[in-house]
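Notebook entry, structure prediction.
Reason for the run: the old model in the group folder had no record of what sequence produced it. Starting over properly, with the input documented here first.
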Amino acid sequence: MIKIIASLLLIIAVGFSSQAQDDTYNTEERKAQLSTDSMNVDIMVIPANYKLYSSYFDRQMIEANNISFHDLRDTILSSLADEVALAFNDSVPSGVILESKSGYPIDMDFVYESIQYTYEVVPQPKEKESTFGKWKNKVSKKDKKPEPKKGTYMEGGQIVSNPETRPMYTNIKVLNNDFLYLLNKRYHAKTFVFINHYEMAISTSTHQVAIQSDNYPRIIVVHFTIVDVTGTEIHSGVVTRNASSYDNKLDYLIGTSFYQIGREIMINWENSK
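New structure, fully documented this time:
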């Protein structure tokens, strides 16, 4: 009897040892795969962190696609990055960072922990000024009064409230550009397109009657930043597209809206050169 118990304990111990070795092997194998995967691109797309995903229509889309919230969110963020890379790839070799496709969110920590998110006023496109326009601006600057400070603050012993009415967006600042040099060495990328924030919302101008009848446009807002290998910003902003409130299928969203969003981001990048 004692021999039988001893034999069973030995089998269990060997099983645990083998499992531990398998876990270690899988971890090391995954790290080796990430370090040896090759992809030569000029432009690399970085998907949005799942924490910066927000959608008013998750319930409808979960039911229509018969998937969980996490699968819906991850599919949207991954597919958006793929379509943006595809749009850039029409003219420049482009791809999505391979670490985002490993199935292990921790593999992207070295990217997300090296950037800082900021909430800023949406930059306005620069327009070429005529000679008269330059002269007019030069003259008007002499009499131009400084704009009042935005926000709520104390002034002269009183509380002053001056809310920001201009559109805002989520931008990023690179805190440590070591990871960009690492990605440049690994994938030869020189330009990086960050998808900072994904939103699907209802327009503030939508009437309550339209919402009740479920007949109104949805607004897809994608916040993005493009930087070079040193972390210097090349361009940033938002791209907005409308989608029908009846379109809950992922294949329609990905096939019609995401590629067009990628095209607009690419055009913004080309115009910033």
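Summary: Confidence is low (pLDDT under 50) at residues 1-6, 8-36.
The old model has been moved to the deprecated folder.
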